[in-house]
Amino acid sequence: MRPLTLRFGGLRSYRAEQEIDFTDVTLMAIVGDTGAGKSSILEALSFALYGGCTWDNRSSKGLIADGGDGTARAELTFQARNKVWKVTRTTSAGGSPPSVHRLEGVTDGSLVEGSRAVGDAVQKLVGLDHQAFLKAVVLPQGRFQELLQAKDTDRTAILKNVLGLDQLAEVRQQAVTTRERLEPLLQDLKHRRGLLLDDPANSIVDAEARRSAAAQQVTALEQLQRTVREARTAGDNAARKAKEHRTAASRLMNRLPDDIERRYHDLAGLDSRLTDETATVGKQLEDADDDAERLNATLTAADLAGTGIAGVTEALTTFKLLPNQLAELETQRRDIEEEKSAIGVEQAALVDRERDHVLLVTKAEDSEAEVEKAKTVHTNAVSELERCRTLLADARQAARTAKTSAASVGEIQKDLNDRKTDFNDASLAFSHADDAVKEARKYLEAMRRANSAAHAAAVSKAGEPCPICVRPLPGDFVAPATAETTQAARNLTKAEKRAGTAHTALTRAEVANETVRNRFEEAVKAAKTANSERDETYSAAAAALGDFLLEQDEESILAEVRSGAEQTAVTLEQVEAEAKAAHDAMTEGKARLRHDKEALAKRSENLVKLTLALERRRGQVLATYEVVPDQYRLHAEPTAEAIERGTKKAQQRLDELNSIKAKLDGVQKVIKSLRRQSKKLAEDRRASVELPVAELGRLVQSIADRTIGPAEMTGLAAAAQRPTPLSITTDARWALDVLGTVEGLVQRCLREAQVLEQNASTARNDADAKLAGVGITDESELEHRLTDTRTDVRQAQRDRAEAVAQEPICAELDARISATQPVVQSLRELAGLLADGKFPAAVVKRRQRALLGLASERLRSVTKERFAFSNDFRIVDGHTGQPRDVRTLSGGETFLASLALALALVELTSRGGGRVEALFLDEGFGSLDSNVLSEALEALTRQARDGRLVTVISHMRDVAENFDNVLLVTKKPGGSRAHWLSADERDQLITDEMTAGLLT
User: Is residue 780 part of a domain?
Assistant: First the structure.
């Protein structure tokens, strides 16, 4: 695994996104101050590959930067297994946005997603789990020596992964998995083969022989069965026919009646008597029908003319109703006329009221106009009152302001006089203090002149040249001084302090005086302005109110203006009351007028409806009258006389029709009685003659029909069919003929049945003889033997078909078993050879010796041949010749041993096409002297020459002197930042570090 580019952000001290390109870099250094964020780059690499941090693989929450957006991101592009991959991971403090775990194949376009799936894929590509990665590739700060000091089991697991020996475990696992997958299949093949025939080819030959023998036996038995069956059939047919003959004879004899001739004679006499009675009743019924038809025709003709019973009855009903209907029509007509007259009167009154309402509207509108005028006058009066009130308030405020300003001028004048006095006093005090300073300074100078030598050395120190003789002053030199000079200097200092205090007081008094004078000038100016405003506001108020005194109260000054405003309010109230009364009268009149007009309109509309209804009702009455037949409607109009005469005439006609109807009813009663007699005779004839004759005919016909079968069996003629037309006489003769035919057929059937029974007995004896000839008792035994033989044939056929079907299957199974069984045995042997403790252990041991040999070479190189590795990872000390535990080494020695082991591991994996193509070393160089450091860096350089990425991380900036590629990490308030140094920047960094070293 070789990193190409690393992009990360929101991770530990890196709040902003950072990208590092390792593509063209082999040997590099990451330098920066302690805490700048160098090790965080390794954390980003670890998080991108394994989703965890170097100190906790189970969680990555500790990587999230403080003060960032709450999400740590890392994206690593790397090369592994001759392909380029890109792994992306994110994690958030609160779970939103959700974490991302994605591995993309840049070369082949493959994609793996999900934390566990990506972790498994990365581990397979890198060949190391997270812990092994931290011991062999990325050596974090404080964990550099873990591979060196690891337990044997842990070190062996790491070496197996790094050196690719874990592939042997994968091969063994694949062998076990394949064997476990194939063994059930092999057992299934064997089980399936065990369920089939041992030798399908021999089974085919044996089944064919059995089938042929059984088929020949079936043919012989089937021929015998057909022969016996034919004999049995012949006997059965003869017996059946004999039975049929006897049955036919028996059926014919059982159906023959004894008294057919007598029964036909009695029925003929009864039929003659009933026929005569029926003819007599028929003649009487015909005469009665003629009378009924004549009377009914009379009534029907009257109905068609509209003068029948129904028409006359309806006319009488109409005549009875018409007087009341006509009276109602007259009453309604009078009511309509009265309503029409009343509506006319009210319409005239409405016209007068509408004229009066127009006057009310005009009065209301005039009142509204007066109200608006009064409102305007009142509003103006109120506005004038408020204006006067405002003018008065402004005049009084201006007077108060002028008075206040005048008082302020007096107060400030007094304060100004006080400040002038203070200033004069301070000026005098400062003058006295200044004179005292001058006197003190004059006295001090006189004292110094009197002691000039001591004064010249007053500022000299031990070791400096003497101001007099220029020779160095002794180490215990103290400047000489006299008591008078010292006291004079002290007096001058005190005088200067008092003068300074006096000067400060003078300055303060001068500032205070100037401040008060400015205030006084401003107060005088403000007083003049206030007096001017007072005069202007009073003039404006006097123009509106007349002359007045400001001391007067407001009510007396504004009394006249307020009185005018109040009078306009009273006037407005009176006008509004009059306008409201006019408006109410107009509204009320309008409402009553609208209500009355609507009511009158409804009455007019109702009058029209009543008029139309009267016309419709009158039309209905006339239509009812016109329905009355013309014979009874003596006048065109339904007058009282016409109704009375029509009623009398219709009643006479109704009496005539009722008389005819009564006669018709009597005739119809006679007809009904005769029809009952005729029906009774017909029923008696049917029950006593027709039904018995029909029943007797059916009996004879059934006997005649029964002769058809026996006639066909014997060859004689069957009985004749019933003659037509039907009559009792012809049926009697036909019955005697049928009885004679039956007698002849019975005799013939009995004779032929005897002959057929003899033939049946002979056929049965022949069948028994054929069965006995082959040793079979009866047909049942023959059927059983034939069934068994056929079963043998079918079984042989099934056996042959099964063998034929199994033959290719058995061949295929045998071939697959032969091919699979050696593979399973080989896989079992391979898994056993690759088990831990055998072949892999031997390979690990050999590779470990090679690793320790390479590590010893590098360790001897950097320790001047002093240290080397023993086979158990202990250190052989060249001074003593004895092995030492690695934990007894010093810090620098431990670093060199760990470095030698890491470099040897990288070189060994490269020789075998391994997967470690990068090495990250975090700190440890500070414990080396310059010579050892040079040897260590040379060893790292040799590893980088082969294209590997070797990275050294150190807080010592002078390490950059040994690297062309330097990544500088700095930390600012906004977070850490890493950038590649140019050649000039690298040289400047080294120069600055050297300069800092010289200064400290």
Answer: no
The owner of tokens 């792994």 is: 87
Rounded to whole angstroms, how far apart are CA atoms 334 and 612?
14
Give the position of tokens 């060249």: 878
The pLDDT of residue 462 is above 90: no
Inform me whether the pLDDT recorded for 978 exceeds 90.
Answer: yes
First-residue to last-residue Cα distance in the chain: 43
Secondary structure of residue 32 in the 3-state scheme: strand
875 beta partners: 869, 884
Q: What residue type is 694 in one-letter code?
A: A
Kindly list the strands in the beta sheet with 875-877, ordered across the sheet, starting from the edge strand earlier in the chain: 867-869, 875-877, 883-884
Tokens of 645: 């005469």
Question: Would you say residue 27 lies in a domain?
Answer: yes
Pairing of strands 949-954, 918-922: parallel
Structure tokens at 703: 């006997």
Helix, coil or strand: residue 377: helix
Q: Write the pLDDT tens digit of every residue in 916-956.
A: 688 888 766 655 666 667 777 777 787 777 777 888 888 77
Q: How far apart are CA 78 and CA 834, in angstroms?
A: 32
Q: Which amino acid is at 519?
A: R
Confidence bin at 468 (pLDDT 50/70/90): low
Alpha-carbon distance of 629 to 631, in angstroms, equals 6
Nearest to 79 by CA among 149, 155, 16, 22: 22
The total number of residues written for the chain in this structure = 1000
Report whether pLDDT(698) > 60.
Answer: yes
pLDDT tens digits, one per residue of 46-56 = 999 999 888 77
Rounded Cα gap, residues 457 and 480, in angstroms: 7
Q: Which of 537, 557, 577 finishes a domain?
A: 557
Supply the DSSP symbol for 391.
H
Pairing between strand 975-980 and 965-972?
antiparallel
What is the three-state SS of 774-827? CCCCCHHHHHHHHHHHHHHHHHHHHHHHHHHHHHHHHHHHHHHHHHHHHHHHHH
Count the domains in the chain: 2
Average pLDDT over residues 212-218: 87
HEC letters along 398-465: HHHHHHHHHHHHHHHHHHHHHHHHHHHHHHHHHHHHHHHHHHHHHHHHHHHHHCHHHHHCCCCCCCCE
* pLDDT score of 996 more than 80: no
Neighbour tally for 653: CB within 10 Å: 20
Distance CA 424, CA 321 (A): 145
The pLDDT tens digits of the residues spanning 656-669 come to: 888 888 888 888 88
Which is nearest to 387 in space by CA: 213, 569, 618, 543?
Answer: 543
Characterize 47-82 residue by residue with b for buried, 16 or more Cβ atoms within 10 angstroms of its Cβ, and e for exposed. Answer: bbbbbbbbeebeebeebbbeebebbbbbbbbbbbee
Tell me, rounded to whole angstroms, the distance of Cα 597 from its chain centroid. 69
Question: Residue 944 belongs to a domain with what CATH number?
Answer: 3.40.50.300
Tell me if 636 is assigned to some domain: no
Domain end position, chosen among 557, 582, 612: 557
pLDDT at 630: 74
Between 514-518, 602-606, 993-997, the lowest mean confidence (pLDDT) is in 993-997
Mean pLDDT of 894-909: 79
The long-range contacts involving 843-846, CB below 8 angstroms and separated by at least 24 positions, are 843/165, 843/168, 844/156, 844/159, 844/160, 844/163, 844/165
Which region, left, alpha or beta, applies to residue 952 given φ > 0 means left and ψ of -120 to 50 means alpha?
beta
**768 in a structural domain:** no
| Domain interval for residue 519 | 310-557
- Please tell me the predicted confidence (pLDDT) of residue 165: 64
- Give Cα separations from 78 to 584, 915, 945 (angstroms): 101, 12, 19
Cβ within 8 Å of residue 89, ≥6 positions away: 47, 48, 51, 60, 73, 74, 75, 99, 100, 101, 102, 118
